User: Which sequence fits this backbone?
């Protein structure tokens, strides 16, 4: 049930005070302090940053409506202002040491802050426009006055109500006990003009907690004291210790009373205000937006000149690269289109791709306009920069409709490279998904793109184009795409089947209808046609991950023993992995395996080299990271499918961090072997597909066709082929926190990743050995900043952590005899983790995470010994 909002209209009719009442001809003298403290979440006051503003405040009644005692116009005047640091620091570190209030504020601002202002209280409440000051005053000064004025707003009875104050229009809960009222502001309900943005992914995002409580004590119908405390804490989900908080406190204390000015005569508030000072205006109680000005800050071009060395290819595996990348994004977000173009045009060939990453990731109107003007999509030679732009769009933290519209316009124009044409459409699918997540599914451009990709597969007979549209739909995760995937799961083209089945696996289990399940089961059991092994394996993955029924599991178990040799072994390994790792299907699997017809030695003693294994990469209170390695061979010992996945889970959400799949087919003729059933007429092919942070990228082909295969075999250097390389803005959170004191805190949390994923496949006919490799190199930096900028004084804190890592997955197969020898290795190098807090100086710690070889099944360990023993 929604809370009942109460006011005190009944108080008025009964004569009971609705809010605080001032006595006529009396001057109330208060002491007032407001302070702001910024620190890391678990910090101590000694290591924090902040300052306190103190003053004397005179309050008196200017006018009261003769017909209502609770309709009052109040005058407030601040005097004797002091500014000092909150925490105890040495004279050397105290930037305010020896400074006077006038030297800090400036003569003009000090005069403005001490100038009286008016507040119209009606039944203890402030209406939106009922705050009177001077338009020409600096915004920060008006906001400080609004913060003080908001402390006079109080309701004397218990209940919930919507109020206007400096924070915006908020729901507030009052609890009144004799002589004391507690006001709790429900901050998440506040409507303010300034909105920020955040990353769509909960795993990569930022969590925040906020509270605001004011305790009033009353004496003789008016406020004796008001003590307010407001706290905002922000933390990075994947590492909650990377957190910062801002604490704002206000204290208003009555120190005495004396004879005051006579109440003014007048019929209404407007007339009385004019009689006090004709320049006074209804400027409104809600805080105004403060335009921050950076004095002495370098231009974007100057910033780029300072950072460019860190963004050269040789530096991309170091944490300095993403740190410079994040800093450059902050500069780009403040820059004009012309300033951005100047940097793009001045960058050399080696660093230009990284500049494209930074400019696109900035996601401002100016940065997008600059990129669209800079890139020429009709030029096939510009493929690298064009693809970096497209991938940065796909990974965008908070894309808007205009970015999608830009890609739609590109797709309709002339594109010089077929690969880029495919990437444009595939990435549009990812943008549709992100915009739909934010409630933008009915935006005009989203509707157009949805229609284009939903109609796409049936609009063409070109195999590559059908795959392009299916991959775009896989990224979009549109509900309307499920019937399309269900249809293509039973296609005669193996590539269509694989894309459709892997796409279905990405949907929530609740969307797997009986029709979808029947289709997937038909594919696995080959009820209508013969399918390739990798298609059947993909179908099995969907069945096992979609809350399978007892009969589905039983039929799947009964199929083992009737499958091609290597698929028998793959399915056994998959089932054992599910049970060992306690995946959701493990419970029904155990039940079905109690049946000795389904589970017997004959079925579960099948030999082969294919395997499936899952394990933990890392576990902590904040996040758990798991990996899975599935590998399927043909009966001849040549790789058919290799699939590596890395998942991250945090805050009850799951992120598919990485998937690298290598597929090969039609290679049996190389070693005079017989193809498996359903694979007799397959064209020679090997390729690699990557999914990164829930975004499917354009697949890469190693070779296609026999002639291409032979030319590649004789020219193989053993060097892996690059799949994705660049800088990615992983997390992006920007927020303006309007404090009740009138101060504003700006919170910026960003995570940057430098990544290099490559893969390769080598075949040696002489040694009858094949080797596939997936190499992952990365450096991650996450920074969080909270600053309070008052024009005349700025304070802030930065929390940060960074790491560098490498992860290699290598599979070596010796197929000179059967069963062939297979060795899988998954190695993680030793990598540093550094984290620190910075206020005026940087304090940090560093630790080394030792390298390791991730565990796989014992059978693999035994075979690796044989492979490497036979190598000598």
Assistant:
């Amino acid at each position: 049930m929604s809370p009942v909002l109460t006011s005190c209209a009944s108080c008025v009719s009964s004569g009971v005070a609705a809010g605080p009442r001032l006595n006529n001809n009396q001057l109330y003298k208060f002491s007032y302090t407001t302070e702001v403290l910024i620190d890391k979440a678990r910090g101590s006051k000694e290591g924090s940053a902040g300052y306190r503003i103190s003053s004397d405040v005179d309050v008196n009644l200017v006018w009261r409506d003769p017909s209502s005692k609770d309709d009052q116009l109040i005058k407030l005047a601040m005097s004797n202002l002091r500014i000092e640091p909150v925490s105890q620091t040495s004279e050397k570190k105290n930037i305010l040491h020896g400074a006077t209030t006038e030297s800090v504020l400036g003569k003009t601002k000090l005069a403005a802050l001490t100038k009286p202002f008016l507040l119209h209280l009606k039944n203890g409440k402030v209406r939106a426009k009922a705050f009177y000051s001077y338009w020409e005053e600096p915004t920060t000064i008006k906001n400080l006055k609004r913060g003080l004025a908001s402390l006079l707003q109080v309701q004397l009875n218990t209940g919930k109500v919507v109020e206007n104050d400096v924070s915006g229009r908020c729901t507030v809960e009052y609890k009144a006990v004799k002589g004391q009222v507690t006001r709790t502001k429900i901050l998440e309900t506040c409507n303010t003009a300034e909105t920020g943005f955040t990353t769509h992914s909960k795993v990569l995002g930022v969590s925040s907690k906020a509270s605001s409580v004011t305790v009033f004590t009353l004496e003789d119908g008016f406020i004796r004291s008001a003590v307010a405390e407001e706290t905002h804490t922000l933390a990075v989900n994947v590492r909650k210790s990377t957190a910062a908080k801002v604490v704002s406190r206000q204290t208003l204390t009555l120190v005495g009373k004396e004879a005051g000015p006579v109440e003014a005569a007048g019929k209404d508030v407007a007339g009385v205000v004019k009689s006090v000072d004709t320049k006074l205006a209804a400027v409104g109680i809600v805080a105004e937006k403060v335009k921050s000005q950076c004095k002495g800050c370098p231009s974007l071009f100057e910033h780029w000149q300072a950072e460019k060395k860190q963004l050269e290819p040789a530096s991309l595996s170091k944490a300095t690269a993403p740190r410079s990348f994040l800093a450059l994004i902050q500069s780009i977000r403040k820059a004009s289109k012309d300033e951005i173009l100047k940097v793009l045009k001045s960058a050399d060939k080696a660093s230009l791709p990284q500049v494209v990453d930074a400019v696109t990731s900035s996601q401002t109107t100016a940065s997008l306009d600059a990129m669209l003007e800079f890139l020429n999509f009709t030029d096939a030679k510009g493929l690298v920069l064009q693809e970096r732009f497209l991938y940065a769009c796909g990974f965008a933290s908070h894309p808007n409709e205009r970015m999608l519209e830009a890609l739609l316009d590109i797709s309709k124009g002339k594109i010089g490279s077929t690969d880029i044409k495919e990437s444009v459409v595939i990435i549009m699918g990812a943008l549709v998904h992100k915009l739909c997540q934010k409630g933008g599914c009915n935006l005009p451009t989203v509707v157009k793109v949805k229609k284009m990709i939903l109609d796409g597969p049936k609009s063409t007979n070109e195999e590559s184009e059908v795959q392009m549209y299916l991959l775009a739909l896989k990224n979009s995760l549109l509900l309307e795409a499920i019937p399309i995937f269900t249809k293509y799961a039973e296609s005669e083209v193996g590539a269509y089947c694989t894309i459709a089945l892997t796409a279905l696996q990405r949907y929530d289990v609740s969307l797997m209808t009986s029709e979808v399940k029947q289709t997937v089961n038909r594919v696995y059991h080959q009820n209508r046609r013969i399918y390739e092994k990798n298609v059947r394996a993909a179908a099995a993955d969907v069945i096992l991950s979609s809350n399978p029924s007892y009969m589905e599991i039983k039929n799947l178990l009964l199929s083992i023993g009737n499958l091609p040799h290597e698929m028998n072994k793959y399915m056994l390994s998959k089932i054992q992995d599910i049970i060992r790792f306690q995946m959701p299907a493990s419970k029904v699997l155990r039940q079905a395996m109690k049946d000795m017809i389904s589970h017997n030695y004959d079925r579960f003693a099948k030999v082969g080299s294919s395997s499936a294994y899952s394990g933990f990469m890392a576990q902590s209170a904040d996040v758990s990271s798991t990996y899975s390695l599935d590998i399927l061979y043909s009966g001849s010992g040549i790789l058919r499918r290799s699939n590596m996945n890395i998942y991250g889970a945090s805050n009850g959400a799951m992120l598919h961090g990485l998937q690298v799949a290598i597929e090969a087919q039609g290679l049996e003729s190389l070693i005079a072997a017989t193809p498996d059933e359903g694979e007799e007429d397959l064209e020679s092919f090997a390729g690699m597909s990557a999914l990164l942070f829930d975004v499917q990228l354009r697949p890469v082909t190693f070779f296609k066709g026999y002639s291409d295969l032979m030319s590649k075999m004789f020219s193989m250097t053993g060097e892996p082929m690059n799949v994705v390389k660049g800088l990615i803005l992983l997390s992006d959170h920007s927020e303006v926190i309007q404090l009740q004191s009138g101060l504003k805190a700006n919170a910026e949390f960003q995570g940057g990743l430098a990544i290099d994923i490559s893969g390769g496949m080598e075949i040696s006919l002489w040694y009858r050995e094949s080797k596939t490799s997936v190499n992952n190199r990365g450096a991650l930096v996450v920074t969080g900043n909270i600053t309070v900028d008052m024009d005349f004084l700025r304070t802030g804190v930065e929390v940060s952590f960074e790491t560098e890592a490498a992860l290699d997955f290598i599979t070596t197969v010796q197929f000179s005899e059967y069963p062939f020898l297979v060795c899988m290795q998954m190695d993680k190098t030793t990598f540093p983790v550094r984290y620190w807090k910075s206020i005026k100086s940087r304090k940090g710690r560093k630790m080394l995470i030792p390298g390791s070889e991730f565990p796989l099944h014992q059978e693999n360990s035994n075979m690796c010994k044989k492979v490497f023993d036979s190598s000598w």
